[in-house]
Amino acid sequence: MGETHLSLILGSGSPRRRELLAQLGLVPDAIRAPDIDETPEKGELPRPYCIRMARQKALAVPLSDGEILLSADTTVALGRRILGKPADAGQAAEFLFKLSGRRHKAITAVAVRRGERLWQRDVVTDVRMKRLSDVEVNAYLATGDWQGKAGGYAIQGPAGAFIPWIQGSFTGVMGLPVAETAALLAAAGFPVFGPVFGPEFGPEHGPEFAR
Fold first, then answer.
1. pLDDT tens string 146-189
2. Which of 69, 91, 137, 151 has the fewest Cβ atoms surrounding its Cβ within 10 A?
3. Is 145 a catalytic residue?
């Protein structure tokens, strides 16, 4: 299968995803961030939206033989509402006050493509944010850490002080669930931990799509 000659392509410009890949000892051979329309469809729910985004990102990047692509998308959901990346500090403040004192879901969908085959998995984590004061929100906005973050916050940054409880995947909230990512890469034939340990990440764990 040529496992020893595969190149890993990261279909994301996120430095956080590069850091999380590094936890697995992986450094992408190239970064090719796709430029796609991330506008939700009318009435689209957060989880299907996130899965669609990861899939579209994976399909939008050109690949050569011997390359495996990893892409992902992270969405914050408050009920049926999608909280994407805030356009400015005002919208970031709006998102934070909506999340304040409530539970929400952080969804990350991961897609791995090799040739015409696509493997996908999504991870949903429940997150509780404490009740925020004006002082806390303004101080956080001043850090600029909200920029480019779904829901207007990053759990691994100063906003971690706002989150006393999660149920699910911490790395998923960050933007790349490492356990599921490692399993998808292995299923696609990429030697994450030395020799490939087999495509045991089958349909019961996550769908495999033929293209």
1. 999 999 999 999 999 999 999 999 999 999 999 999 999 999 99
2. 91
3. no
DSSP-derived letter for residue 125 is: E
Token pair in block for residue 56? 């579209």
Domain boundaries, the chain: 3-210
Fold of 3-210: Maf protein (3.90.950)
Question: At CA 65, angle to CA 34 and CA 181, rounded to 5?
Answer: 55
Q: Report the distance separating Cα 53 and Cα 57, nearest Å.
A: 6
> What is the distance between the alpha carbons of residues 211 and 34, in angstroms, rounded to a whole number?
19
CA atoms of 206 and 208, how far apart (whole Å)? 7
Q: What angle do CA 175, 180, 186 make, to 5 degrees?
A: 125
